[in-house]
Amino acid sequence: MAAATPRELLLPRRRRANLTPWLFIAPGLILFGLFILYPIVQALQMSLYDWNILRGAASDFIGLDNYARAVQDDRFWLSLANSGIYMLFTVPPQIVFGLAVAMLLRSKAPVQPLFRVLYYLPVVTSWVVVSLLFKYLFADQGLVNWALSDILPLTDGTTSWLSNRWTAMIAICALGVWKGIGWSMMIFLAALQGVPQSLEEAAALDGANWWQRFRVVTIPAIWPAMLFVVVMLVIGGFNVFTSVLLMTAGGPGGQTEVVLTFMYQQAFSNLDFGYGAAIAVLLTVIVFIFSVVQLRVFRDRTDEESR
User: Fold this and answer.
1) What is the CATH number of domain 66-306?
2) CB atoms near residue 291 (< 10 Å)
3) 47-90 tens-digit pLDDT
4) pTM of structure
5) Domain extents for the chain?
6) E strands, 89-247, where?
């Protein structure tokens, strides 16, 4: 029997080496398949059926009827508009205030870790807790009305914040901004650590003021972080759910309903899971389109600055 060559001896070792990474990522892949990929496929399937949850199976295949129903549903468009309003009025303030706070906390003063923790504390606080807190603050006899009437005499203290679409959206957006500033701050703070100090010093020696240094040196250096923050905040804005559900429950009369609360009502209150799944798919497509557009815009800006 011929002796094995060195190449033949190396083959099992190479196979083991190639198999090792897959063994490490296999648990993650299994969890991704069970809890992410399978629900997505199941939602796509359910959206094409008149799903009968009582039987545990689809009763009738109706194709794209659920999607056509959503396009013709005024309540769906209202919920989508409210989601867009929430996104428009929460994303820019979170970026501006988050970056401003990160710039202020950039120094290495002894008290800076304490301020960083204080600003980040709302981020790790439960959405349920802060939603109920803001519901109390904006109640008819809440602290906001008291402050606006007694401390700052701007109103008569009788504003019913959560009983009107626009004032309720103000309260919901205020919660979103307050809770999200700390997250944006941490991302920008990490990005600011990588800004070359030599470039800022050179710009200062050339006579650039703080705004010119910020615009020409700081912003280009943190542009990738800016892209990440914007994309994630837009996705989060369209996926607002808990605060709306607990503060207004979509009221009054569905005027503050967002896409996810509308989907939740259709699926779990009306047991219309096929229609709810179609709404979820439509929201996914909308968020995907927004993300692609943002990536394209930021990429074009990066290409222009690199020339």
Assistant:
1) 1.10.3720.10
2) 16
3) 998 887 766 555 688 889 999 999 999 999 999 999 999 999 99
4) 0.86
5) 21-61, 66-306
6) none
